[in-house]
Amino acid sequence: VDIVGAGVAGLQDTHLCDWYAHGWNAGTFAIFGSDESSTVMPILLKSAYDNKVHLAGEALSSGHAWIVGAVNSAYWSVLEVLAVEERNDLVKKMMQMWK
Which residues contact 3 (CB under 8 A, 6 or more apart)? Predict the structure, then answer.
């Protein structure tokens, strides 16, 4: 199995998971009601506990039920954490890497 990112510095271990083999989560995804995109979503997108907690996942993106939604959400959450930590050097590097 070719693992993307296996050459990433500091990567210590990987774990492959077949989500279809898990009865409690196979085929599930987040979906908001008609007005929850404008009422619930903004609350979930805000960092909490003095900018120490940042949520991410497909539920917090416009790409519900798609892996790209999870990846996009993770990208923005990482940028938020780096901004809070004032790591502008890493923000710039990340943005250049993911053009």
Answer: 14
* Residue 69: Cβ within 10 Å count: 19
In sequence order, which residues have a C-beta less than 8 Å from that of residue 14 and are 6 or more positions away? 3, 6
- Say if CB 84 and CB 51 are below 8 A apart: yes
Q: What is the secondary structure of 24-66 as a DSSP string?
A: TTTT------TTHHHHTHHHHHS-BTTTTB---SGGGSSSTTS
How big is the CA angle at 7 (ends 65 and 84), to the nearest 5 degrees?
Answer: 60
Task: Please give the model's pTM, rounded to 2 decimal places.
Answer: 0.64
Return per-residue pLDDT of the chain as tens, 99 residues: 445 555 566 666 777 777 677 777 666 677 778 888 888 888 888 888 888 888 888 888 877 778 888 888 999 999 999 999 999 999 999 999 887
